[in-house]
Amino acid sequence: MSTLTESFATAGALVIQADPQLLGIVALSLKVSLTAVFLASCLGLPIGAAVAVGRFPGRRSLTVILNGLMGLPPVVVGLLVYLLLSRAGPLGAMGLLFTPTAMVIAQVVLITPIIAALSRQIVADAWREYEEQLRSLGASTPRAAFTLLLDTRFSLSTAVLAGLGRAVAEVGAVMIVGGNIDGVTRVMTTTIALETSKGDLPLALALGFILISIVLILNALAHAVREWAVRRYG
Amino acid sequence: MADALLALESLRFDAGGRTLIDSVSARILAGRRTVILGPNGAGKSVLMRLMHGLIEPTAGRVAWADCTTPVQAMVFQRPVMLRRSVLDNLIYALSLAGVTHVERTTRALDVLHRVGLAHLASRPARVLSGGEQQRVALARAWVLRPQVLFLDEPTASLDPGSSAEVERLIGVIAAEGCSIVMVTHNLGQARRLADDILFVADGRITEHTPVADFFAAPRSAQAEHYIRGELSWT
What we know:
The complex is a heterodimer.
Chain A lengths: L1 H16 L2 H34 L5 H11 L4 H12 L14 H37 L4 H11 L1 H17 L2 H7 L9 H11 L2 H33 L1
Helix pairs in contact in A: 1-10, 2-5, 2-6, 2-7, 3-5, 4-5, 4-8, 5-6, 5-7, 5-8, 7-10, 9-10
Chain B lengths: L3 E12 L2 E12 L3 E5 L6 H9 L6 E6 L7 E4 L10 H11 L4 H14 L15 H13 L5 E5 L7 H16 L3 E5 L3 H7 L2 E6 L2 E7 H6 L4 H11 L3
Parallel strand pairs in B: 3-7, 3-8, 5-6, 6-7
Antiparallel strand pairs in B: 1-2, 1-4, 8-9
Helix pairs in contact in B: 2-3, 2-4, 4-5
């Protein structure tokens, strides 16, 4: 219990002092994960909509695969991206291993299936309601998919947020491809893992609380936006 | 004798191992209001969707006069509004129809004036009442300047006041020379709106006559049964 109270005090102190090292870690975490979420959304939302609306062979299997990939183990993704980016790997020449870019790549691989699978479900539900009307108006399949993405935008924020939650909270992938280098690739989760193994529990817990707070605040904001949108647009 | 608008040639439609529409042949006349009547599950809606091209016939064909598909629109029992303003719903339909950017807004506003919804133009469409949404759906169909307007039980879920307004609008649209094809269960509505009655039972057309003849002296036993059954409830 004393560890918990102590860590609260430490967390408060670190935040109030705006400790530059702490801020750097939090900022890098957010930068990496937000970039990954942006890129994964650019990929995942169209993929989800295409699988929901498109009529092509293998659509059913693709749905199953997407849903299955939602549960990709971060360490395995980290390992695969590591092999891809390591000196001997196919993309080794780019020298990306142990950089924030490598971490972004690993997180994109990790969360694109999550965003794609969740948005497929949301768009498919809407498609059931809209299909006849949109086809009656002469919408092509790509146009219909785009319209549905736009029309379900408030529900899709849930899918994007699920991706962000996963990205910012995972440790396995960024640890492997980032290397947890102080000041370069050290993010909240890897710091927590490191400080815990060193025995510095208060700092680890303090970071943990900050991490949870960030996730909660983002979700609360998104929830508020959705509530407002439903009242405003139905 | 009026010109044919479209001819149904030995139309058949199978789904799920059942024949829903069986060897249907008919000529729908241009510039007239054709009402499709028939018991539940007779295939009225399926027949209309075949005419509109939302589904492909298993056999036979829908042949338009002059071999050119006319501008057509459809209003469904439940209006599907896009999550945007009333005006933008109309503009969306016009953009899919390939109407130039500059023309869209003027045309949309003009039609909204004519259906008495101009004051709702900037309101989000999905928060309107059911009656208002159905009138927007009619406006969205009318703005396309269709030569044929299909209506699938457009007043089935509306209160009497909204129904009367929708019927009035259908009359106005028909008066402009647009051919109307409508499915309804409301015999009073059929009497008020129809020029011709197309009676469907068990996937076949049993009767295709002017409205006065249909109600005065139905030729088929099913139709007679249907009229008596319906009237006993009204």
